[in-house]
Write a structure and sequence with these properties.
Layout: H1 10-14, H2 19-29, H3 34-41, H4 60-71, E1 78-79, H5 92-99, H6 102-105, H7 117-134, E2 138-139, H8 146-160, E3 168-172, H9 177-190, E4 193-197, E5 210-215, H10 226-234, E6 238-243, E7 261-265, E8 281-285, E9 298-302, E10 308-312, H11 318-322, H12 335-373, E11 377-378, E12 386-390, H13 395-404, E13 407-408, E14 410-413, E15 416-420, H14 427-438, H15 446-450, H16 479-491, H17 513-516, H18 522-525, H19 537-554, E16 558-560, H20 566-583, E17 591-595, H21 601-608, E18 612-616, H22 626-635, E19 640-646, H23 658-667, E20 671-675, E21 695-697, E22 718-720, H24 752-785, E23 804-807, H25 809-815, H26 819-828, E24 835-836, E25 843-846, H27 854-875, H28 906-910, H29 930-935, H30 944-949
Parallel strand pairs: 1-13, 3-4, 3-5, 5-6, 6-7, 17-18, 17-19, 19-20, 20-21
Antiparallel strand pairs: 2-8, 7-8, 9-10, 11-12, 12-15, 14-15, 16-22, 21-22, 23-25, 24-25
The structure holds pyridoxal-5'-phosphate.
Length: 950
């Protein structure tokens, strides 16, 4: 008889190999069971350190029902809080065809341009949108949030300002409070003094190297900054302006009044509030400063045939190259959200956007008139969408009345309140607001207020330049056109919905549909991050439960969910270490040991907290050289602050000496930061919080199933041991008021349901099984490929962890074929390349994850072996050293028509294995020329004429 209890089918859905496959793979490796395999991989000294229980996982249906109950505890009031977060309508075709579409959300950061032309085009549209609206010359492809973008602007000004004598940064009191908080956090370790004040009363501009202004101001005022900017410039200070994109459709853009940087949030362009994130921030500057810009930048280049092709320009992977001298530590940014914002602009076009702005402004003007008629003093003469009211002793009562009416207002202070209108405001909302403020008096009639109401924008600051005249913002205004444009772009790209993406260190695993479903529920999407706590009880339960789950998975005692990427987790973690040392009077501890194999974000982060990086060596087996580490720890004993170490190492090995390494650091007074990007090899098997780590970040967008979104969003929570809990990031809206590292208290809160769902459905045993299969899959690939490509490192047992590095350098020597050639040839086989040249130049790092089936692993191995055969043909002289399928890869469809002059056939070029006939990915461009692109940097959509000339 069939069992009547619900079976958990999810674990086997999440995991790729079937039981018979697992058995076959284990047999190839010579192990009797999966436990026997992983018992051999995990070093003796840390075995059994996991404290994850074996609680059973919920079925998909049960987990969805449970999270629905949690979600329903969030209350959705009509919110007028503003302060950088506004209501918006995500256009349905963008919601369905982009935000909820795996072709968009499962893609990786577009480092391989040939398979990324679709999202690169969308990001170029974003950059064009930003330069156009801000009036600046160049914009990047997104930053993490407005507050961190402002902090990046501060350090950017510091690097570029000619006023080298000053260490002071002026920040207007009219900036959003959360921006000021993050600025203070960032400034302190760098010795920068943030002076918050009223820009109207600045007497000596030469006291500052830079300044931050808000436009329109946080309280709603619109100030004319022209004269002020000129004064700062005369004093050699640079000026950054945090500006609202919707307002810029009507107002003179910062670029036209002299700003050196424009930054802000693109949230209100169709991205749900989501309790604070994820949202895309933007950053734009002058052309002359482009080389110092933080974040990723999309640029035009040409492909092998001289045709236009897009790629990431200059700063690509810059932390890996410039290490502690990098301009910023940002790696994962907010690509998916930038793409939503850019498509919102594509869909609405200049007319639509301007209309939304005008309507929002018009409703605000009507409301202001009504409030004045009711006897309120509206503080603004000029405003766009935000008003502040001096409500004196009535303030508290008004908040109460508003909440009774289902309305949230902004709590400026005990005597004033604020309100911001937005795209979702309609006549009924204005009437509801007036009813609250009427307090029993007759409500002024909307129609009467609306007659004769005039715009309240300052005449001298009305925008005169056109907005968004580029064709891309003027042709996709019907839903059919937009739907097809989204499909056309998605079809150009390879994402996880087409094939395995074997990127080492990046953990491209399944982002299950059941995990994704709650993300776009209104119960999670419609909450403002600063709504009163009683309205976010669902979020409060979700985050509390998630923190407990992550503590169990890592062996730590406390978690902060605030950092919105791994890099930001590193930053928060090092800040906690720094604060801990300071609290003990250990002010001199400023040295951070980092093994040479570390990810580039590690040294880049250490320098952001004012630490000095000392690099330690690795031995020939890829392990941290413990003798060197010990010598350096002892040499710097007095000043040792921390070690940053990745575990299992970026070389793909579980180092046996990890406990000893942690001990050496502790013995010398330092703290151990374990970079948790490789947590996918450890969950349920061993726990960094139990074998010596004091703090780790996790990349929820790697191990814990949040999709990469084409380069973001991410979540980079940190786990800490109990002694560091007091130093976790705070926020004005949390118990600890200081030390915010993100604009919102829970960072990218609205994607946390993904991880909650994953852990809930997998349960303790399922999570452990996932780690085991991840290790099995990696070892299976290593074993199948080792006779064709040398596997660079393995443990003393001959096994790798959850990823393996193939050494292409000997092949390069014997055949002239490079890692690039292998990576690009994989595209012809329908695969995304593995991680290239990290952590060792001339190598490929492969991480299959547990989600890939044996069929897919074999398909990949077969492709790699077929490529090796081609290389052998080059070595043997059967294929020309320069004109061969590897050097010319990837091959486009266009190349096949017309004359074929290569010394190999068309079939070999595009159908190297017969299985491809059934489903072939065609790259839209040939190999992209990187050098050309950097020499001729173009980072916005060129005009149609420029295309035609080319
Ligand atoms: C991915 C990664 C990081 C950076 O994380 P982001 O989320 O991209 O900022 C840091 N360290 C290692 C080892 C990584 O693989």
């Amino acid at each position: 008889m069939t069992k009547l209890t619900t079976q958990n089918e999810f674990i086997a859905r999440h995991i790729g190999p079937r039981d018979a496959d697992t058995a076959a793979m284990l047999e190839l490796l010579g192990y009797a069971s999966i436990d026997a395999l992983t018992d051999n991989v995990i070093p003796e000294s840390i075995k059994g350190s996991s404290i994850l229980g074996s609680q059973p996982g919920l079925s998909e249906a049960d987990a969805l029902a449970k999270i629905k109950t949690i979600a329903s505890k969030n209350q959705q009031l009509k919110t007028f809080i503003g302060q950088g977060y506004y209501g918006t309508h995500t256009p349905s075709p963008i919601l369905r065809n982009l935000l909820e579409n795996p072709a968009w959300y499962t893609a990786y950061t577009p480092y391989q341009p040939e398979i990324s032309q679709g999202r690169l085009e969308s990001l170029l549209n974003f950059q064009t949108l930003i330069t156009d609206l801000t009036g600046m010359q160049i914009a990047n492809a997104s930053l993490l949030d407005e507050a961190t973008a402002a902090a990046e602007a501060m350090t950017f000004c510091k690097r570029l300002s000619k006023n080298k004598a000053s260490n002071a940064f002026f920040a207007s009191q009219h900036c959003h409070p959360q921006t000021l908080d993050v600025l203070r956090t960032r400034a302190e370790p760098l010795g920068i003094e943030v002076v918050v004040g009223d820009e109207a009363s600045i007497t000596d501009a030469s006291a500052y190297f830079g300044a931050l202004l808000q436009y329109p101001a946080s309280n709603g005022d619109i100030f004319d900054y022209r004269e002020l900017v000129a004064r700062f410039h005369t004093a050699n200070a640079l000026v950054a302006v945090a500006a609202d994109l919707l307002a810029l459709t009507l107002l003179t853009p910062p670029g036209e009044f002299g700003a050196d940087v424009a930054l802000g949030s693109a949230q209100r362009f169709g991205v749900p509030l989501g309790f604070g994130g994820p949202h895309a921030a933007y950053f734009a500057t002058r052309d002359a400063f482009k080389r110092d810009m933080p974040g990723r930048l999309v640029g035009m280049s040409i492909d092998r045939f001289g045709k236009p092709a897009l790629r990431l320009a200059m700063q690509t992977r810059e932390q890996h190259i410039r290490r502690e001298k990098a301009t910023s530590n940002i790696c994962t940014a907010q690509v998916l959200l930038a793409n939503i914002a850019s498509m919102y602009a594509v869909y609405h076009g200049p007319k639509g956007l301007t209309q939304i702005a005008q309507r929002t402004h018009q409703f605000t003007a009507i409301l202001a008139k009504g409030l004045r008629a009711l006897g309120y003093s509206v503080e603004q003469t000029f405003f766009f969408d935000t008003l502040s009211l001096a409500t004196a002793s009535k303030t508290a009562a008004l908040h109460t009345a508003a909440r009774k009416a289902g309305i949230n207002l902004r709590e400026i202070d005990s005597e004033r309140l604020g309100l911001s209108l937005d795209e979702t405001t309609d006549q009924a909302s204005v009437e509801a607001l007036l009813a609250v403020f009427a307090d029993g008096k007759a409500v002024p009639a909307f129609a009467e207020l609306a007659t004769g109401v005039s715009a309240q924008l300052p005449h001298g600051l009305l925008r005169e330049s056109a907005v968004l005249s580029h064709p891309v913002f003027n042709r996709y205004h019907s839903e059919t056109e937009l739907m097809r444009y989204l499909r056309k772009l998605a079809d150009k790209d390879l994402a996880l919905d087409r094939s395995m993406i074997p990127l080492g260190s990046c953990t491209m695993k399944l982002n299950a549909a059941s995990e994704m479903i709650p993300v776009t529920w209104a119960e999670f999407g419609n909450l403002h991050p600063f709504a009163p706590a009683e309205q976010s009880q669902g979020y409060s339960q979700l985050t509390t439960e998630l923190e407990a789950m992550l503590c169990a998975a890592t062996g730590y005692d406390g978690i902060s969910l605030q950092p919105n990427a791994g890099s930001q987790g590193e930053y928060a973690g090092l800040l906690a270490i720094r604060a801990y040392h300071l609290s003990r009077g250990d002010d001199q501890r400023d040295i951070c040991l980092i093994p040479q194999s570390a990810h580039g974000t590690n040294p880049a982060t250490a320098s952001m907290v004012g630490m000095r990086v000392v690099v330690t060596a690795c031995d020939s087996n890829g392990n941290v050289d413990i003798i060197d580490l010990k010598a350096k720890a002892e040499e710097h004993k007095e000043r040792l602050a921390a070690l940053m170490i990745t575990y299992p190492s970026t070389h793909g090995v579980f180092e046996e000496g990890i406990r000893e390494i942690c001990q050496i650091i502790h013995d010398n007074g330092g703290q151990v930061y374990i970079d948790g990007a490789n947590m996918n090899a450890m969950v349920g098997l061993c726990a960094p919080g139990q074998f010596g780590g004091d703090v780790s970040h996790l990349n929820l967008h790697k191990t814990f199933c949040i999709p990469h979104g084409g380069g973001g969003p991410g979540v980079g929570p940190i786990g800490v041991k109990s002694h560091l809990i007091p130093f976790l990031p705070g926020h004005a809206s949390m118990a600890r008021k200081e030390g915010a590292v993100s604009a919102a208290p829970f960072g990218s809160a609205s994607i946390l349901p993904i991880t909650w769902m994953y852990i809930s459905m997998m349960g303790g045993d399922g999570l452990k099984r996932a780690s085991q299969i991840a290790i099995l899959n990696a070892n299976y690939i290593a074993r199948r490929l080792e006779e064709h490509y040398p596997v660079l490192y393995s443990g003393s047992n001959g096994l790798v962890a959850h990823e393996c590095i193939l050494d292409i350098r000997p092949i390069k020597d014997s055949s002239g074929i490079s890692v690039d050639d292998v990576a690009k040839r994989l595209i012809d086989f329908g695969f995304h390349a593995p991680t290239m040249s990290f952590p060792v130049a001339g190598t490929l790092m492969i991480e299959p994850t547990e989600s890939e089936s044996k069929e897919e692993l074999d398909r990949f191995c077969d492709a790699m072996i077929a490529i090796r055969e081609e290389i052998r043909a080059v070595e043997a002289g059967h294929l020309d050293a320069n004109d061969n399928p590897l050097k010319n890869a990837p091959h486009t469809a266009l190349e096949l028509v017309g004359e074929w002059t290569h010394g190999y056939s068309r079939e070999q070029a595009v159908y190297p294995t017969a299985t491809l006939i059934d489903g072939k990915y065609w790259p839209p461009v040939g190999r992209v020329d990187n050098v050309f692109g950097d020499r001729n940097l173009i980072c916005a959509c060129p005009s149609i004429e420029a295309y035609q000339d080319a």
